[in-house]
């Protein structure tokens, strides 16, 4: 069993009183000894004995192949016959998929790299086939191509329970939303992050439905956890950029931004409703509501006409509210990734606040000294806070 999944499962089982701490300790000791035995028996020690290194090598290999093949085709595209172009475009992802399926049981980490290759090259295939058959200029087709690519990548990430492929799928999904929803790019990205986080709550089989008790034995999925931290990172980055700077986007009647904001709010409400009777699930769902609410407040500031510093202070408060929700979720879910997102968001938020509005109302040298002192203090506080949260998580 994957060590990270084992640690998360044992922490959750102890918390839910499925097993006691002594039993968890014995399981850890047994699994550790088994892992060491398998590694010694196979002659895998040192650097290559670390499975994460093997996974990293496989993923880098898949990514490099995708980039290399794409570059090769781009340089020689016009000289390749049309039929051969289509064959290559279809053959690369299909061959990668076939190889991944074939190696799935014997060499799962190498198969992981091939799945990443298939997910990445699917985009090249879709867009180049559209160009090849002269349909790329069809109105609205770009959004559908992005959506199809995102669906393939997210499907692979979910089925494989892969963090890297899931990140690719979420990033491509943002491209699909940007192509389909005309509006303010920053706001669309932020509200999309809220939707992605809510999806991470709704797709997590370890979080019980309202009134259910029977999901604590399931292993946590990397897929759902990745959706949560990536979605949280999107929302945090956008609030830090548009809220704390003191210059939020102006309020307009743009239907695209309003639609994506409404979808984020509905997704958050659904996530909370699903998890209302479970304390652990309520912790997880807190950022699903905090993200669209904080973004909505930051957006609304654009139509109030307040002083820039006042707007920045309110924006900073919105950011801190979202960061608090992420920390609550991190403690409830025992997820270090959410702690890292909250820590980075805190530093980014304080830095943006100092570099933007505060620097405008103070003299240059004084602003630099104040900014330096506050950033040092923020860094120290963020580091200590992160360690404290991680220690509480065990």
UniProtKB/TrEMBL annotation:
Membrane-crossing segments per the record: 53-74, 86-103, 115-136, 143-160, 166-192, 227-246, 258-276, 283-303, 309-331, 338-359, 365-382
UniProt cross-references to InterPro entries, sorted A to Z: DUF2157
Domain DUF2157 span(s) in chain numbering: 12-165
Source organism, top-level taxon: Archaea
Pfam family of the protein (one): DUF2157
Keywords associated with the record: Membrane, Transmembrane, Transmembrane helix
Name by which UniProt lists this protein: Putative membrane protein
Species per Swiss-Prot/TrEMBL record: Halorubrum alkaliphilum
